[in-house]
């Protein structure tokens, strides 16, 4: 189909009420994966085996430069689902509530409910259960604890609130773990929705590869641990401000993880192996859902979104987990596939998670609520070869990061008007190893980015 004709057609759908009445509304299958970093074949990295995510990418558009707005699960999800950016007073922590968006904010579930969609949440979409009370159905798998261990010793330790292992490698069926049960539930939902002929916004939240890294042994066996290498830069950069560092307490909570200092090399490789296995396990569940969508002949009228809630460090900069302003904690995978869009394309136009709500408004012919602070990605979907957006804004605690083309600038404003800064130019230092902010020759660049950061922040409240 000619792209200009397609563009005009979509504009008609978005703005012409008569066209909306004549065209069937698109369904949405929204898949969110916890702690998924874009270390995937589709991002030019071949370490992780994820054939089903790769296949989805071959049928849609992959965003090479997608970023979360805050690198922690609860806050990231609340921001995405409300369409509101995090600030110094909202969406700060793992247990952030969508209520922090303020009264009068129509969250994405209310948006779809108001248009007659059936809305279903399976497993972890919001961090807090029942944080959004508007779902037609909100389902969570059940176990004694959320960590869902299967090893008897780990289960006992966890139930007694004692540190258990950071990973499991068991000869065990997929079905014992939450994410396989989530896939089962979602497939059943698709069958019911098909029979009911309901338009749907079906949100599916996979927990892995969140800690603990628990995956059946067959997924571990996809990798040779001897071939796993630690990142080239696995120590904290000497030029970075100390405030950019954290103690990765999320990982240190687990058994056999040192309470201080670095992870021993062999244990670090095992943890990376476990992370890879967990991603491959989730990839298999995603494949089951997409296959069901195809088998039920729902694909031609369904928009599929696959996204991570934030990145994750695997010892880059000497850090583990998220909770930082480095790119590895901010970048997320994002794939959007749908009828009438190009297939097997990549775009370097920047995307932020706050952009997804307005994008889904456009893709389902809905009028965007006035409070939305993101930008629709519709143009990037229509013409992925072009750059429509060149900046993004993220924050972690007091650190605010402005991404401007290849420049990553972070600024911390501290008591007594002290300011700490960090600047990386990805065109020459993609691994963020040398902080350019203190260098005299970058002073004007730092001043310019600092002004842009302040202007960006003033554009929303």
Write the layout of secondary structure elements.
Blueprint: H1 3-15, H2 17-22, E1 27-33, H3 51-58, E2 61-63, E3 66-67, H4 73-82, H5 108-113, E4 118-123, E5 137-139, H6 152-159, E6 167-170, H7 178-196, E7 200-206, E8 213-216, H8 217-220, H9 249-252, H10 265-295, E9 302-308, E10 313-314, E11 320-321, H11 327-330, E12 331-332, E13 334-337, E14 345-347, E15 351-352, H12 356-363, H13 378-382, E16 391-396, E17 399-404, E18 407-414, E19 418-425, H14 443-458
Parallel strand pairs: 1-7, 1-9, 2-14, 3-15, 4-5, 4-7, 6-8
Antiparallel strand pairs: 2-13, 3-12, 9-13, 10-11, 16-17, 17-18, 18-19
Helix pairs in contact: 3-10, 7-10
Total number of beta strands: 19
Distance between the termini: 41 Å
Judged by helices, strands and strand pairing, the structural class is alpha/beta
Percentage of helical residues? 25-40%
How is the biggest beta sheet arranged?
Answer: 8 strands, mixed
- Low-pLDDT runs of 5+ residues are 12-21
CATH-derived topology of the largest domain: Alkaline Phosphatase, subunit A
CATH class of the largest domain: Alpha Beta
Count of helical regions:
14
Note the overall shape: globular
Number of domains: 2
Report Rg: 22 Å
Q: For the largest beta sheet, what order do the strands appear in spatially?
A: 5-4-7-1-9-13-2-14
The average pLDDT is 94
CATH homologous superfamily assignment of the largest domain: Alkaline Phosphatase, subunit A
Task: Supply the CATH architecture of the largest domain.
Answer: 3-Layer(aba) Sandwich
What does this structure look like?
By secondary structure, the protein is an alpha/beta fold. The protein folds into two domains: 3-386, Alkaline Phosphatase, subunit A (3-Layer(aba) Sandwich), CATH 3.40.720.10; 398-461, Arylsulfatase, C-terminal domain (2-Layer Sandwich). Helix content is 31%, strand content 19%. The protein is built from 14 helices and 19 strands. It has helices at 3-15, 17-22, 51-58, 73-82, 108-113, 152-159, 178-196, 217-220, 249-252, 265-295, 327-330, 356-363, 378-382, 443-458, and strands at 27-33, 61-63, 66-67, 118-123, 137-139, 167-170, 200-206, 213-216, 302-308, 313-314, 320-321, 331-332, 334-337, 345-347, 351-352, 391-396, 399-404, 407-414, 418-425. The strands form five sheets. It has an eight-stranded mixed β-sheet. The protein has a four-stranded antiparallel β-sheet with strand order 16-17-18-19, covered by helices on one side. A hairpin with a 2-residue loop joins strand 16 and strand 17 (399-404).
């Amino acid at each position: 189909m000619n792209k200009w004709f397609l563009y005009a057609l979509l504009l008609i759908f978005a703005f012409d009420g008569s066209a909306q009445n004549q065209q069937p509304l698109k369904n949405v299958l929204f898949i969110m994966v916890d702690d998924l970093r874009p270390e995937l074949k589709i991002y030019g990295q071949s370490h992780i085996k994820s054939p089903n995510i790769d296949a989805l990418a071959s049928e849609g558009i992959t965003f090479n430069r997608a970023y979360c707005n805050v690198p922690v699960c609860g806050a990231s999800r609340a921001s995405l689902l409300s369409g509101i950016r995090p600030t110094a007073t909202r969406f700060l922590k793992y247990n952030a509530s969508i209520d922090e968006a303020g009264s009068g904010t129509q969250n994405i579930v209310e948006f779809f409910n108001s248009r007659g969609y059936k809305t279903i949440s399976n497993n972890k979409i919001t961090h807090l259960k029942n944080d959004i009370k508007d779902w037609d159905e909100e389902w969570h798998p059940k176990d004694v604890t959320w960590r869902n261990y299967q090893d008897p010793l780990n289960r006992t330790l966890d139930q007694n609130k004692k540190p258990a292992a950071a990973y499991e490698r068991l000869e065990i069926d997929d079905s014992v773990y939450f994410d396989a049960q989530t896939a089962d539930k979602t497939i059943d939902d698709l069958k019911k929705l098909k029979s009911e002929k309901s338009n749907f916004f079906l949100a599916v939240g996979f927990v892995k590869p969140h800690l603990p890294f628990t995956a059946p042994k067959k997924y571990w066996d996809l990798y040779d641990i001897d071939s796993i290498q630690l990142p080239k830069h696995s120590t904290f950069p000497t030029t970075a401000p100390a405030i950019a560092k954290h103690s990765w307490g999320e990982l240190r909570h687990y058994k056999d993880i040192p309470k201080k200092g670095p992870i021993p090399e062999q244990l670090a490789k095992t943890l990376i192996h476990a992370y890879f296995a967990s991603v491959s396990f989730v990839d298999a569940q995603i494949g089951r859902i997409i296959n069901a969508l195809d088998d039920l002949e729902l694909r031609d009228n369904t928009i599929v979104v696959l996204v991570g809630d934030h990145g994750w460090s695997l010892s880059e900069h000497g850090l583990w987990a998220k909770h930082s302003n480095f790119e590895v904690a901010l970048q997320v995978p994002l794939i959007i596939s749908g009828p009438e869009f190009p297939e097997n394309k990549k775009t370097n136009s920047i995307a932020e998670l706050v952009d997804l709500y307005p994008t889904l408004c456009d893709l389902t012919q809905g009028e965007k609520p006035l409070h939305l602070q993101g930008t629709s990605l519709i143009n990037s979907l229509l013409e992925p070869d072009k750059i429509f957006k060149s900046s993004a804004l993220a924050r972690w605690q007091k650190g605010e990061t402005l991404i401007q083309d290849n420049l990553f600038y972070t600024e911390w404003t501290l008591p007594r008007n002290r300011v700490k800064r960090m600047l990386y130019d990805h065109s020459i230092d993609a691994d963020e190893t040398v902080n350019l902010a203190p260098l005299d020759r970058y002073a004007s660049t730092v001043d310019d980015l600092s002004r842009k950061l302040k202007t960006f922040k003033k554009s929303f409240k």
